[in-house]
């Protein structure tokens, strides 16, 4: 490998490590301010508009997409269950997939796309126009007044958005399975209730909390550290979504393993299968 390529590779790796260190420091500062600066960021005039913007205005699109995801899932898996003679059990697989995996991930991805980019662009614009420097000059902490309210709104609202996504996904799967394919409604709900436990809903909600935290922190960090100019703001918004999406997918894998092992530790048995007796 030529020397200049080795140099470029080394510089890239060094920059990535440096960026990760800066992000870690940003997260630590944010957590410290969250604990010790609660009087600064917990004012209603800071939180309520963000709760409305991030939560209420995101609800319709997440519910719509959740319903169609449930319907698509029903269409895709029905033929396989029918070939196995297990079409009566289809509700358990659709609903447990929605509650534990699709619902939390879908809500997080939609939130990252709709809110993450907007938060990053907003903070990036404030940085480019030197509003954040002006806040510091006046003795106002940008972390307390800009970052924590947005992160708090993401973490607070995403479990509710996940529940709405779950509800519409379950109803969408029910509509296609029962009304479209003629599966017994009683069997659909019976097997769903048999194989979906409260711990499954708990798993989905725990995941959503971590997803919301990741989206809020990443979006704010990208916005506060964007390059100058309109191109820098646009790039920060794009980076916020892409990085949040990758973080959601990777953390979903690790959280799934952690929650499964926690279930085994608490209950002492593996999670039930939809094809069980």
Write a structural description.
The protein has one domain. Helix content is 85%, strand content 0%. It is mostly helical. The protein has helices at 3-36, 38-41, 44-54, 59-83, 90-128, 131-137, 142-180, 185-195, 198-224, 230-267. α1 (3-36) crosses α7, α3 (44-54) runs parallel beside α7 and α4 (59-83) runs antiparallel to α5 (90-128).
Short description:
This protein is mostly helical.
- The best one-word shape is elongated
What number is the mean pLDDT?
87
User: End-to-end span in angstroms?
Assistant: 59 Å
Strand content: under 5%
User: Which H/E pattern describes the elements?
Assistant: HHHHHHHHHH
Rounded Rg: 22 Å
Task: Enumerate how many helices there are, as a single number.
Answer: 10
Runs in which pLDDT lies below 50 for 5 or more consecutive residues are none
Strand tally? 0
- Helix fraction? over 70%
What would the keywords be for this entry?
about 280 residues, mainly alpha, 10 helices
List the helices and strands and how they pair.
Layout: H1 3-36, H2 38-41, H3 44-54, H4 59-83, H5 90-128, H6 131-137, H7 142-180, H8 185-195, H9 198-224, H10 230-267
Helix pairs in contact: 1-7, 3-7, 4-5, 4-7, 5-7, 5-8, 5-9, 5-10, 7-9, 9-10
């Amino acid at each position: 490998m030529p020397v200049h390529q080795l140099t470029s590779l080394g510089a890239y790796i060094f920059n990535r490590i440096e960026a990760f260190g800066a992000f870690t420091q940003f997260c630590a500062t944010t957590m410290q301010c969250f604990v010790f600066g609660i009087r600064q960021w917990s004012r209603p005039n800071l939180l309520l508009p963000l709760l409305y913007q991030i939560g209420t205005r995101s609800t319709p699109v997440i519910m719509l997409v959740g319903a169609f995801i449930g319907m698509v899932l029903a269409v895709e898996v029905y033929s396989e269950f029918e070939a196995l003679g297990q079409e009566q059990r289809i509700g358990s697989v659709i609903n447990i997939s929605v509650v534990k995996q699709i619902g939390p991930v879908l809500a997080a991805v939609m939130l990252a796309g709709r809110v993450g980019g907007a938060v990053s662009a907003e903070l990036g614009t404030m940085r480019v126009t030197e509003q954040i420097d002006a806040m510091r000059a006046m003795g106002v902490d940008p972390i307390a007044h800009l970052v924590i309210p947005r992160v708090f709104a993401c973490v607070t609202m995403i479990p509710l958005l996940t529940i709405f996504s779950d509800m519409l996904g379950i109803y969408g799967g029910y509509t296609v399975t029962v009304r479209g394919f003629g599966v017994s409604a009683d069997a659909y709900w019976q097997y769903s209730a048999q194989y979906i436990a409260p711990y499954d809903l708990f798993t989905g909600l725990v995941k959503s909390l971590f997803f919301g935290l990741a989206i809020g922190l990443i979006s704010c960090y990208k916005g506060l550290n964007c390059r100058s100019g309109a191109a820098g703001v646009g790039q920060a918004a794009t980076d916020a979504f892409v990085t949040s999406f990758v973080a959601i997918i990777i953390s979903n894998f690790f959280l799934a393993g952690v929650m499964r092992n926690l279930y085994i530790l608490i209950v002492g048995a593996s999670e039930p299968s939809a094809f069980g007796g």
